[in-house]
Design a protein that fits this description.
about 160 residues; NUDIX_hydrolase-like_dom_sf; 4 helices; 7 strands; seven-stranded mixed beta sheet; disordered C terminus
Length: about 160
Amino acid sequence: MKFKPNQTRTYDREGFKKRAACLCFRSEQEDEVLVSSSRYPEQWIVPGGGMEPEEEPGGAAVREVYEEAGVKGKLGRLLGIFENQDRKHRTYVYVLTVTEILEDWEDSVNIGRKREWFKVEDAIKVLQCHKPVHAEYLEKLKLGCSPSHGNSTVPSLPDNNA
């Protein structure tokens, strides 16, 4: 994997990498979501990435969607904080309503990243193939959960049955 120059990883007090992402919607109806390709053109992801030192999660999420998907928009609610135990990530996931779509953007030019609009159900299917954790963001959105409910916002205690 190629790392950006001068990229500083930030971690929370439990040692999880701090990340931010946005579910980018075509309209406030939240029925069509924009996903971008990863560094591999046929693998779809929700645009997001690591937070910079001193960066707020909302600002990081907006920056990441601009870099990875070439869109700008109106930042909405925090959907939740999603934990990936395997990769030791905690990702702040926001809802963003797209207001501007760039024809060319940094990652499209540099690494050939693509983007595509999907109905929410279809997006869940394509994300489950390569990034099941990202599909969980949309599953939570469909359930209409608020950020204070579910298992995604509070770090879980060790499971004694594991």
